[in-house]
TrEMBL record:
Its main location: endoplasmic reticulum. This is Mannosyltransferase (PIG-V). Pathway: Glycolipid biosynthesis; glycosylphosphatidylinositol-anchor biosynthesis. GO terms for biological process: GPI anchor biosynthetic process. It comes from Streptomyces lavendulae subsp. lavendulae. GO terms for cellular component: membrane. It is a multi-pass membrane protein. GO terms for molecular function: alpha-1,6-mannosyltransferase activity; GPI mannosyltransferase activity. It is found in: Endoplasmic reticulum membrane.
Length: 376
């Protein structure tokens, strides 16, 4: 198998094989949860609070319990508003009970759904069930994959994105558009799913049928969720650019990568930097190389549009440099070239590589949650 296989193939995903992929994901990430739990107990901390009620999880739980309207003002003069957080995840947490355990239940369920969706995309594009399973295994073993088991939104976005891409590859425009709307209500980078749907719709209309109403509707509807929340924040704050003002107050803005380049320079010139900063530079470099491989192998347009938008937002945004690998967690198509290479290797080799990556991921996950003093 070569990377030339990165083209849609008409195959039927069988339930048992998809369950194998789900089992691989559950085994890799379940072991990671146990490692974090053991580390938390050793450090005298509650594992549920570490996983489900720390950093951004606190904001989501607050929105689930009380709605929007909380503003945190710091002595430094910075102002942080909960309007920076999109509404779908806290709404689901509220429906599930509003507690930290409810948040974890939503995240873990979303992660499981995402794993099956990632498998379906990988199996279709790589041409074999084994390729899809390996893609899921690699995704579960990423350095920051511990975030998939936190009370965060990355697992939910990954689930919506994976199934939206699967719909696009199978020509299911209504499903892709609906999932894109939900992705746009999940987090700021959810606009990447809308970009995939809109790009695919434009190409479909230009190359095949300009009068296809379902394609027109999908392309126009896809950004509606993201746009609706941004407009709603503007109305609540009596400022049409209110959402972007909120993000700037948090320190998030688009600076075309200037801030990221500064952090990279510090690492490369030997400046004193935390481990998380060094790992972030390595992850971003790997992401860039994998994006080049995906482009050279002419991956389907929806995957390129989706992944490219995530990369643009992540590389070009300022603020929270060490969180950038987390922002790229839903960019699972970047792993397709690696999965294709591993599918050619002996099964024992593929298992050993995945196990080694998972072990490193466990150690780094404990570091992020229990040692580092920065948001994961």
């Amino acid at each position: 198998m070569t990377l030339v296989a990165l083209r849609p193939r008409v195959r039927q995903t069988t339930a048992p094989t998809a369950l194998v992929a789900l089992g691989v994901f559950a085994a890799v990430r379940g072991a990671g949860v146990l490692v974090v739990a053991a580390g938390s107990w050793w450090a005298g901390r509650d594992p549920v609070r570490v996983l489900g009620a720390s950093w951004d999880s606190v904001w989501y739980l607050g929105i689930a319990a009380h709605g929007y309207g909380r503003t945190q003002m710091w002595a430094s003069g910075s102002v942080q508003s909960d309007y920076a957080f999109f509404p779908l995840y806290p709404a689901l947490v509220r429906l599930a009970g509003g507690t930290a355990l409810a948040g974890l239940a939503v995240s873990w369920t979303a992660a499981a759904v995402a794993a099956v969706g990632v498998y379906r995309v990988g199996e279709r594009l790589l041409g074999t069930p084994r390729g899809g399973v390996l893609l899921v295994g690699l995704w579960a073993a990423l350095p920051h994959s511990v975030v998939l088991t936190l009370g965060y939104t990355e697992a939910l976005l990954a689930a919506l994105a994976a199934w939206a891409l699967d719909c696009l590859l199978r020509g299911r425009w209504a499903g892709a558009a609906a999932l894109a709307v939900l992705a746009g209500l999940t987090r700021p980078t959810g606009i990447a799913v809308a970009a995939a749907v809109t790009a695919a719709a434009v190409r479909e209309l230009a190359v095949r049928d300009r009068r296809a109403p379902a394609v027109w509707a999908a392309g126009l509807l896809a950004p509606a969720g993201w746009a609706a929340y941004v407009l709603a924040v503007g109305v609540r704050r009596h400022d049409p650019f209110g959402y972007f003002t909120v993000q700037r107050q948090w320190g998030s803005r688009f600076d075309f990568g200037a801030g990221a380049l500064g952090s990279v320079e510090k690492v490369l010139t030997g400046g004193h930097t935390p481990l998380a900063t060094t790992v972030t530079v390595a992850v971003l470099a790997a992401a860039g190389l994998l994006a080049g491989a995906l482009l050279l192998e002419r991956a389907p347009l929806p995957l390129l549009a989706y992944t490219g938008t995530l990369l643009l937002i992540t590389f070009g945004g300022a603020g929270f440099f060490e969180s950038k690998p987390r922002f790229l967690l839903p960019a699972f198509p970047l792993l397709l070239p690696l999965a294709a290479v591993m599918a050619r290797a002996r099964p024992r080799t593929a298992v050993a590589v995945t196990a080694c990556l998972a072990g490193l991921s466990y150690g780094y996950g404990v570091y992020l949650l229990l040692v580092a003093r920065i948001p994961p």
